[in-house]
Amino acid sequence: DTEVTQTPKHLVMGMTNKKSLKCEQHMGHRAMYWYKQKAKKPPELMFVYSYEKLSINESVPSRFSPECPNSSLLNLHLHALQPEDSALYLCASSRVQLSYNEQFFGPGTRLTVL
Amino acid sequence: AQTVTQSQPEMSVQEAETVTLSCTYDTSESDYYLFWYKQPPSRQMILVIRQEAYKQQNATENRFSVNFQKAAKSFSLKISDSQLGDAAMYFCAYRSAIGSGGSNYKLTFGKGTLLTVNP
Q: Given CB atoms, is B16 within the 8 Å cutoff of chain A?
């Protein structure tokens, strides 16, 4: 299984809502990532989890709260978002070994904040 | 900090022809990885090809090959016998270590090249 799955595919939420994005992989990867991608732009790294611990936070606002309950699952909890947070949110996973850690991407969740 | 530059926002190619997408990068590291990713309109980012900087031989994957010029910091992608399914946004990416410990990496992407394949 070389697939990263993400749910939901689309999400529309108001600025006062609380929602969560889910990402799952069964490749045995111990590094997982959240990226944000605006239209016609490259992905921007948000968070990196390594061995289920948050290792990198790229100065992301606290209204985004990541969680890694186990080695296969990665969540992104959303609260009090702004319209400018509307974007495609991509999850990726990779091995942690030094020499070779290609990132495998999920299909993304298209988020619209009203 | 590493930077990745893709100077061609859009390219087009006739079906069955060959096209080359350019990428340059800036780094002070001697050992690193470079990637080309493809993102079709369906959105899923797919790895096309990778190159280890310490390998002089250019990577090849079927119809996709790279021209890696380490001294010039250039990493172009050649697509031979272009097919309609090759139409996508192509991102060049540089893998660099971040944080402490040496086990966390990030991808720095170029701005992308939108490839159109004409029948």
A: no
